[in-house]
Amino acid sequence: MMVRNPIGSGKEIGFLKGTKDEKTECFFKPFIQHLDGGEQEAWALEQRGVLLREIPYFMKGLSIDETLVLCDEAEDLDAKLIKLIGTRLGDDSAVVFSGDYNQAENEYLNNNGLLLAIEKLKGNPLVGVVILDEDVRSAASKVFAEL
User: Fold this and answer.
1) pLDDT in tens, 66-109
2) Domains of the chain
3) How far apart are CA 3 and CA 90, in angstroms?
4) CB contact at 8 A, 75 and 104
5) Beta bridge partner(s), residue 70
6) Beta-bridge partner residues of 2
7) Which residues of 65-88 are buried (b: 16+ CB within 10 A; e: fewer)?
8) Crossing angle, helix 79-86 and helix 113-121, to 10 degrees?
9) How far apart are CA 4 and CA 74, in angstroms?
């Protein structure tokens, strides 16, 4: 399951027509660009029920069994959303929160659920924390990350 909070950078573009999937599909491009078959592979996996896309707003009440949940851009989650996603986990499931808390947007600068989770959950035998201290995207990306 791919999970992203539909938060963008820059000016909001306003109301979008369409279904939930049509309104949120662009937020999942960072996941899909890393699949060998891109959009076609994502579509095939979704048709077989192997791959799911979700946003936190629609996760309340879900129980997620036998699933690896990949939550990208977790720096744009507050403590309530981290808790919401984590408490959906059922049998044989795990969640990976991935994000750079230095890139948090707006209200998440001062209420960063990712940082809180790292602090509160470290040392728990069910939790592992990996902190990468280097930008691996490109040399140019490193230059802009330091602005």
Assistant:
1) 999 999 999 999 999 999 999 999 999 999 999 988 888 888 88
2) 2-145 (3.40.50.300)
3) 16
4) yes
5) 2, 96
6) 53, 70
7) eebebbbbbbbbbbeebbebbbeb
8) 60
9) 8
Residue 88 one-letter amino acid: R
Sheet with strand 94-97: strands edge to edge? 53-54, 2-3, 68-71, 94-97
Alpha-carbon span 1 to 43, nearest angstrom: 13
The answer to whether 113 and 82 are in contact (CB under 8 A) is yes
Q: Which strand (E) or helix (H) includes residue 69?
A: strand 68-71
SS3 state at 28 = helix
